[in-house]
Amino acid sequence: MAPNNGFAGRTYVVTGSASGIGAATAELLRERDAKVIGCDLHDADIHADLSTIDGRQSLIDQVGAYGPIDAVLAVAGGGKTGMLETNYFGAVATLQGLRPLLTQSPAPRAVAVSSTSSLAPADERLMQACLDGDEASAVAYLQADPSLGGMTAGYGVAKRALNRWVRRVASTSEWAGCGIALNVVASGVVDTPAAAYILADDDLRNTVETAAPQPFGGFPGRPEWVAELICWLASADNRFVTGQIVFADGGSEATAIGDLHWR
After folding, report:
1. Active-site residue, from 12, 88, 141, 155
2. Helices (H) and strands (E) in the chain, counts
3. pLDDT tens column, 104-156
């Protein structure tokens, strides 16, 4: 098989392309002769703020001006503000808004990036507001109820909701029925700017590593290790995988829940 044949000549939209996993993914794709349309707040082909409704629409409009695309990689996330807005509502808006462009590709693919933080329990009222698309209520719940952990707790909730949304829609006529593979890569803790606040504090680092060990590969992982999986799922070589939440986390998820899903 010729190298890179699942990537060459294809056009990939990568959100969060300026740093971390997004930057590593964009770099790997370019090395494999793919065209990348990078999207971020800065240092990208398209500048857009996915924490806002206007920013999401701006991204969709700007991508549309580029012409046909073959894959959408919703990597943007993290941060200490706009947790629900960027990590859930921004990701879903990106995927839904660009889906019509994907239908023009002979091998359309989409991947969203989640996290092992999605394994934490979440308030069902808040989760349902996300899945209902009720952004105002979801944000209001976090702001009003201290027991939910405040706005920073929104990260895990957003990623859990994203996992559930993908599981609900991936096999529908709008996605699988149109030949679009839609998957999630759930990352463990990797060495990125978004994780710097964890890695720079020895006590916090030890707490996180103890709670979510990564026995294979170590703590932290490397962004390019996660990017490799994202790239394959988004390549034309992926012909049979959709609707999956694939944990690229050094074994953290397996350590946490064992064989729970198979009992």
Report:
1. 155
2. 11, 7
3. 999 999 999 999 999 988 888 999 999 999 999 999 888 887 666 654 568 89
